[in-house]
Design a protein that fits this description.
This protein has a domain of about 45 residues. The protein is elongated, with a radius of gyration of 17 Å. The chain is an all-alpha fold and about 90 residues long. Helices cover about 50% and strands about 0% of the residues.
Length: about 90
Amino acid sequence: MRRRVAVFKGDNQGLRTFKPFVDDFSAPYWERVAAWDEWTARRDDWLEQRQLFAEVHGWPGGELERFFEECYVFADRPWDPGIEPV
């Protein structure tokens, strides 16, 4: 008999699909920065919810999945093709 395990109910799909202007270079840069800041705020909230869930039920996918989730690196601003790299 299989044991039932609680499933994390965070807005994972909404987080993945919320990048409206980040990759749309026709949108003004300041709009893409605002969208990026909102996305990172949502991701921080989502990660906090997931960590609270993990304290009670364990991390969904195990410790290796937790490691990859917490160490995932993303830029602090969207890339702008009009700015030369330093």
